[in-house]
Automatic annotation (TrEMBL):
It catalyses: 6-phospho-D-glucono-1,5-lactone + H2O = 6-phospho-D-gluconate + H(+). This is 6-phosphogluconolactonase. Gene3D superfamilies: 3.40.50.1360. InterPro entries: 6-phosphogluconolactonase_DevB, 6PGL, Glc/Gal-6P_isomerase, NagB/RpiA_transferase-like. Pfam families: Glucosamine_iso (PF01182). The keyword Hydrolase applies. Pathway: Carbohydrate degradation; pentose phosphate pathway; D-ribulose 5-phosphate from D-glucose 6-phosphate (oxidative stage): step 2/3. Keywords: Hydrolase.
Length: 232
C-alpha cells in the first residue's frame, strides 16, 4: 500500500487541489467522488480560494459523493450541503456537473434514482478518482465494520450508522473498487492507532472496510498528515 505523509493537513489538501487542476485539463469529463465528514472541509475551503478557484477548469469536472446522510442539504450533517457552502457557492460550475445524493428524498426511491444516474453517467462505472475518508472505527463512505457486504453487486446501498441509527446512502464496495484511483485522505492523531493496525495487519484479518477496499485495477494511496502518520 502506498502511504504518503505530508507535514500538515494543509499540505496534503494542496496536493489534492493541484491534482484537480491537472484532471480538469484533460479533454473530457472527469468523474470525481468526494468524501464527507469533517476531514475534507479543509480541501473544499482550499479549492474555493486562489489560485485553485480560477485555475481549475470546473466545467470539466463532475462531482459525486461516496455517501450522504438522508437529511436536507441545509442540515450541517449533509455531505453535499457542506461542499455547496464551502466550495460550490464560490466557484462557477455547471449545475449538471453536480451529482448529489438527494438526502431529503425517500431513501428507497433515492437509492433507485441515484443508482440509475451512476449507471447512465459514469463510463463503465469506473470513476477517475474516488477520494475517501476513514472514521476512527475504520468505516469508509457509509460502509461500516461488521455490516459491509464486500460482494454486493449493487452500485449503491442504504446503510444505517451503527450508533446513531442515521440512514445514509453509500456507494458499494464493489463500485468503489472499480475506480481508476482511490485516495484515502486521513488527518489528525485520532486516526493514528487504527492506521498503525491497517499498516501492520493483513487486511483480511481486520473488520475495517477502509483496510479492505482498494482499486482492483488501479492505484490505491493514503494521503496522511504527520499527526495521523505518527505511529507508522
Ligand atoms: O460518516 C462519515 O465519516 C467518514 C469519516 O469522517 P471524518 O469526520 O472522520 O472525516 C467519511 O469519510 C464519510 O464520508 C462520512 O459520511
Amino acid at each position: 500500500m502506498n502511504y504518503i505523509t505530508f507535514p500538515t493537513a494543509q499540505a496534503a489538501v494542496e496536493k489534492i487541489a493541484q491534482e484537480f487542476v491537472l484532471y480538469s485539463q484533460l479533454d473530457r469529463p472527469v468523474h470525481i467522488s468526494l468524501s464527507g465528514g469533517s476531514t475534507p472541509k479543509l480541501l473544499f475551503k482550499t479549492l474555493a480560494t486562489p489560485p485553485f478557484n480560477t485555475k481549475v477548469r470546473w466545467e470539466n469536472l463532475h462531482f459525486w459523493w461516496g455517501d450522504d446522510r438522508m437529511v436536507v442539504p441545509s442540515d450541517p450533517e449533509s455531505n453535499y450541503g457542506e461542499v455547496q457552502k464551502l466550495l460550490f457557492d464560490h466557484i462557477r460550475i455547471p449545475v449538471e456537473n453536480i451529482h448529489r445524493i438527494r438526502g431529503e428524498e425517500n431513501p428507497d426511491q433515492e437509492l433507485a434514482r441515484f443508482s440509475a444516474e451512476l449507471t447512465a453517467c459514469v463510463p463503465n462505472l469506473e470513476f477517475d478518482w474516488i477520494i475517501l475518508g476513514m472514521g476512527s472505527d475504520g468505516h469508509t463512505a457509509s460502509l461500516f465494520p461488521h455490516q459491509t457486504n464486500f460482494a454486493d453487486e449493487n452500485v449503491a446501498l442504504i446503510a444505517k450508522h451503527p450508533e446513531s441509527g442515521q440512514i445514509r446512502i453509500s456507494k458499494s464496495a464493489k463500485l468503489i473498487e472499480q475506480a481508476k484511483r482511490i485516495t484515502y485522505l486521513v488527518t489528525g492523531s485520532a486516526k493514528a492507532e487504527i492506521l498503525k493496525q491497517i499498516k501492520t495487519t493483513p487486511a483480511e484479518q481486520l473488520p475495517y472496510p477502509a483496510a479492505r477496499i482498494r482499486a482492483k485495477n488501479g492505484i490505491t494511496e493514503w494521503y496522511l498528515d504527520a499527526d495521523a502518520a505518527k505511529l507508522l
